[in-house]
User: Fold this.
Amino acid sequence: MQKVEHIGIAVKSLAISIPLFEKLLDSQCYKTEQVESEKVNTAFFQTGGTKIELLESTDPGGVVARFIEKKGEGLHHIAFDVADIEAEMKRLEKEGFVLLNEIPKPGADNKLVCFLHPKHTNGVLIELCMEKK
Ligand code: ZN
Assistant:
């Protein structure tokens, strides 16, 4: 795996959290994007080489809504850049990690992504991501 590409934070409301993070980071949100497959609206900030991704649920039954219900707002996942997502998925599966999707799926910000089950990663949801070519 390469660098931490972004850190995902679950929030109840982008309308509230975008201005909050703009103040916090002293940096403008450069992009918002709806990700249909994950039932979220996302907002991105650039902080040096690593991005911050805010996630707001678009569906009360969606994964982010359920996460907030259980744990409250906060750190949701850490995403690592990988050069070859399929090779990395195979490697991790061989190591005993559980992939939440068997084939890479389209994520926000022009990426192909795969999530690892947090049960096997000390409770931290891990996302692999690779720039779409
Ligand atoms: Zn992410």
